[in-house]
Specification:
about 140 residues, disordered C terminus
Length: about 140
């Protein structure tokens, strides 16, 4: 019998339906992956919030019928890079200047991440954020 050897990876990628359920699943699976990587405490909490917000935005504002969104996380020594890609390239995220009934999400992302931005894709866009994993997690 041949035994399998698994190699730990520092990259996590999955595609989910661009729905509220898909966004919730993205957050839950990201939390599990962060735990598997040993990212805990305030760094894990910050990364979870960033994934939740970006996934929610992808499902709400980036949805195209029949298209999924993709969540990707990459673990480095001192940070986790989080990327959410959706099919709506023309709908670029902007933090609300005067949040009303919402619009605080990107302000939260900006407060928790050391950097964030948007990059174009052939179809759609990718919103990314870099969340520190050391003691340097910023407070808003």
């Amino acid at each position: 019998m041949k035994s399998e050897t698994t190699t730990p990876t520092s990259e996590f990628t999955l595609r989910l339906s661009a729905t509220r359920r898909g966004a919730r699943l993205a957050r839950l699976l990201a939390v599990q992956q962060l735990h598997d990587w040993g990212v805990t405490g305030s760094a894990a909490d910050a990364a979870e919030l960033v994934v939740a917000e970006l996934a929610s935005n992808a499902a709400l504002h980036g949805r195209v019928q029949g298209r999924d969104f993709e969540v990707r996380m990459e673990r480095a020594d001192d940070h986790v890079r989080i990327e959410l890609s959706d099919a709506r390239g023309e709908r670029r995220p902007l933090p609300a200047r005067k949040p009303d009934e919402g619009g605080y999400g990107l302000l939260l992302v900006a407060a928790l991440a050391t950097a964030w931005g948007v990059k174009e894709r052939c179809v759609g866009k990718t919103v990314w954020a870099t969340v520190p994993t050391g003691a340097s997690v910023r407070s808003g």
